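Quick one:
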Amino acid sequence: MAVRVGVEGLVDGVELRGVVLVQPYFSGVEPIGDEVAGKAAGFTYPTSTGGSDDPLMNPAKDPNLGRLGCGRVLVCVAEKDGLKDRGLYYSEVLLENSEWEGRVEVMETKGEDHIFHLLHPTCDNALDMMSCICTFLDQ
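Output:
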């Protein structure tokens, strides 16, 4: 959505100042880090013609990534999440392989797995992540 904002803009002076990605679910044909390349793209996005490398599933393949419509991004990943490396890769691609000139922050929660904050919303790590998100939004 933030890329679409950068390409198409918003109405009436509305501005997107930042994006928070919490354990993002991205994919790609080539595995990143310890990731096991899956076939979930066909299930999660059945109308795609690009499969796991469709730009909606793999932002690294989006020719408009550098037009991201905000100046700040927070990427939250969890240490034991099988999608962690893909989330970290997104932040690297955004900074190093696109013309986007914004700022990326990464928060990695140690000892946790995917969606831990939904399963245990009052645990210390979930509260720490929420605090990080609130601080990001307040800037």
